[in-house]
Design goal:
The structure is a single chain. This protein is α/β, with parallel strands linked by helices. The chain folds into 2 domains: 87 residues, no CATH class; 175 residues, Lambda Exonuclease, Chain A (Alpha-Beta Complex), CATH 3.90.320. Helices cover 46% and strands 20% of the residues. It has 9 helices and 6 strands, in the order H-H-H-H-E-H-H-H-H-E-E-E-H-E-E. Strands 1, 2, 3, 4, 5 and 6 form a 6-stranded mixed beta sheet that branches. Helix 7 packs across helix 8.
Length: 271
């Protein structure tokens, strides 16, 4: 297994837990690789308990042998008997939280909120279809997948129809954009450490080429190319930083906003 695959496996393992995540690790002079990966997190708001603390809390919970405390019981015990707090080093945030997406008018109007919600679901619908298309190297039977996603998002046939009619052209556009790529990695997750933040994000598409990497971010938007550049350039800059950390030997050849608008699809390169 390559280092890249191990990093992805570790990320998936760490982010699947809903209520409680318990990791075990020996305190060695030379910690193993996965321990090194989580070492920067040990002083942030993600709570860390040593084995003696875990053992102490387990002993506080009355159980009948040979039973052991459940995750729910341990979580309640941790909540009730808080260990000494650490001074946080990192504040965890998402990539999209680093940019402002809503205008004051949208926040003030319930009607516009409903429109924004539907638009957001349509964007999710489009992203999900393009993710599946990329996984199949753009050879996707669209309609069965579209119906499954539509039902999951509680969208109507009428709501998805304009986008559904346009998606074959979007897929053709992306196929042309990535035709020389050796590998396509849709929905590429990452964690990026900065001085004061731990940034959590997902890149719509990472295309691996023999000489480097191109990243693509889909935007279902009516904004002009210049508006999209101004709004999302910081976001794609973060994506580039994250990929440089994950693939230190692969140069970032290009960052692209894929603007998907009615009757028009355009890839907008960013510096």
């Amino acid at each position: 297994m390559s280092q890249q695959e191990r990093h992805h496996l570790l990320y998936v393992a760490l982010t699947r837990a809903r209520d409680l995540l318990i990791l075990s690790s020996a305190d060695r002079e030379k910690p193993n690789e996965w321990h090194k990966q989580i070492a920067p997190l040990l002083e942030n708001p993600i709570r860390v308990h040593t084995f003696p603390e875990l053992q102490q809390h387990a002993q506080l919970i009355p159980v009948q042998a040979p039973s052991v405390p459940t995750a729910n019981q341990l979580e309640k015990s941790f909540t009730k008997h808080q260990p000494p707090t650490h001074n946080p080093t990192f504040q965890r945030t998402t990539t999209t939280a680093t940019i402002t997406l809503d205008t004051p008018a949208q926040k003030a109007s319930p009607q516009l909120k409903d429109v924004h919600k539907t638009t957001s679901h349509l964007g999710t619908f489009g992203h999900a279809l393009l993710e599946e298309a990329a996984r199949q190297c753009w050879q996707l039977n669209i309609h069965p997948v579209a119906q499954r996603i539509r039902q999951h998002l509680h969208l109507t046939e009428k709501e998805i129809q304009p986008l559904l009619c346009q998606l074959p052209s979007v897929i053709e556009h992306m196929q042309q954009q990535t035709q020389h790529a050796s590998s396509l990695l849709p929905e590429h997750s990452f964690l990026l450490h900065t001085d004061q933040h731990l940034i959590d994000g997902t890149i719509d598409l990472v295309a691996i080429y023999p000489d480097g990497i191109h990243l693509f971010d889909y935007k279902f938007s009516q904004s002009t190319p210049q508006q999209l550049k101004e709004r999302y350039q910081p976001q794609l800059h973060i994506y580039g930083q994250a990929l440089r950390n994950i693939y230190p030997n692969q140069p970032i050849l290009g960052s692209h906003i894929v603007a998907i608008q009615p009757n028009h699809i355009q890839s907008i390169p960013l510096p």
